[in-house]
Amino acid sequence: MNFELTAEQQDIRKMVRDFAEKSVAPTAAERDEKELFPRDIFDAMGKLGILGLPYPEEYGGAGSDFVSYALAVEEISWVCGSTGIGLSVHVSLCAWPIFRYGTEEQKQKYLRPLAEGTKLGAFGLTEPNAGTDAGASATTAVKDGDSYVINGTKVFNTNGGEAEIEVIFAMTDKEKGLKGLSAFIVEKGTPGFTYGKKEIKMGIRSSVQRELIFENCRVPAANLLGKEGEGFKIAMSTLDGGRIGVAAQSVGIAQGALEEAVRYAKQRVQFGKPIATFQGVNFLLADMATQVEAARLLTHRAAYHKSNHLPYAKEAAMAKMFASDTAMSVTTNAVQIFGGYGFSREYPVERMMRDAKITQIYEGTNQAQRMVIAGSILK
Amino acid sequence: MNLVVCVKQVPDTTEVKIDPVTNTLIRQGVPSIVNPFDKNALETALQLKEQHGGRVTVISMGPPQAKDALKECLAMGADEAVLVSDRAFGGADTLATSYTLAAAIRKLGNYDIILCGKQAIDGDTAQVGPEMAEHLGIAQVTYVAKLTVEGAAVRVEREHDVGYEILEVQTPVLVSVVKAINEPRLPTVKGTMKANRAEIPLWGAGDLAVSEPRLGLKGSPTQVRKIFTPPQRTQGVVIQKETAREAVADLLQKLADAKIV
Predict the structure, then answer these.
(1) Rounded to two decimals, what is the model's pTM?
(2) Containing domain of residue A246, as a range?
(3) Which of A44, B59, B204, B228 sits at 20 to 30 Å (Cα–Cα) from A202?
(4) ipTM for the complex shown
(5) Which positions in chain A touch B189 (Cβ < 8 Å)?
């Protein structure tokens, strides 16, 4: 049994950490406050190879693995949860289904620029009336000659409006329900594809979520991803991987809050002693550290399974559920340790607490994760 | 163009603590980094390679763990790295260090420009670069803030308190650079992976044409008599009053209170 990261994984983690400290952290608070999407940071991550970390070099990737990718998401989220989720969505939810289900032409045309980081990716499944119940999608795609005509609306689309490449899902055969869902690659700027409102949110405010509107949007038939009717399978397997990204994002947010809390508890003096010397505070820190470590191990194991072509749906669901609950509780306790200062925007823990909440909700609510886990163990 | 960059692994802090009993640096718990000015030197070399082609070799003298610093340089894009390391080099002052590094550079052979940071942030001597040039018998230009190459001519702007000195020198030349010359690039994922797989050769005293009495502590005429943390300077006081007359009166009062006037 081996719990050590490989030398390569350790080096990549350090490399991304240096980048995060130097290029992501300094603007995190301001971007949160002003809801600024950091395209420059994504461009920089592209140049450094972070946006194509796990994909083969023949498709423009760096040729590393999904453990290194999870480490990268963790390190970025450690200083900025917003940037962390944008990275996760790009790599896991947009590039991956093209890598896994795309034709060679689709990979060269779409995966390559995504992996090289010259284009940004997004994933559109959720609709106003189809959240966890993806089979209730009302967006339709009707074949017409050499193209599909797409009509409908997607919501909460992360990276939406910024992404040049979207993987979206639409019903090609409503009669068939889940088996009538299909996946498509849609480029920004395609006639009939526009953006609706941008969400104003509690957390991850430097990440962007927009409404996607398709009005008689004509997409070449060559942009069908996989076969007609494979959409649900593609969406679910893609989300399995996405959950590793969200788990890593959660671990990063939690680690960031833990470090802030430890530092503060050592500095803050009350009753003539640093508050870290009080058991009421240091037991809290001990629990927080243990939760983060457990969440990290679950996350790394799920990523390891994915890298080594072992089943990972259950592992990813467990990691996502546990890590996101950890992020919520650790950030909440970090605010508690900071007391009134924690509630103030002067310190970063309140941002971390706001950022943590969404990790329990997106890419499958933690209730949906329990459905996945229960389904897997009761098979 | 063959470019050699000399780097040093240093503790990651400008506030190095000193053990009051032994008068030595407390290195424990302090992470090590590539000396920041040396990264400027490496960036200069990488840009020259991009413009003119060639090879960038990074060289460091230090303990075995200095390999980590060299790995980072490889990740940034250096083509190869050499670690000069031997117990016999231990305790070297700048003279013994520059002597040893010069021997290693001679062993590398063909070079056009040797690049160094202006100084290391731990010792702050700024001596090793210039001394290497002396050992090698080549030209040297220190504190360079801009550098361009045309054929064998190297045109530099040398930083001065009052402005810049513009010089043209012929290769081979040793150049030490200041922070203002560029912004060092970050390593890429691919570079990091390549660096991880790279073999970094280790050269000891036996691999170099050196005379043993000139190495390490034995070859070091400098003797450290005492190292101490200077007393902290207290912050100055700014006297702000409505008028100069009031401010001067206040100042005189303060000086009188302190029994200075």
Answers:
(1) 0.88
(2) 233-377
(3) A44
(4) 0.87
(5) 12, 15, 48-50, 53, 62, 64, 68
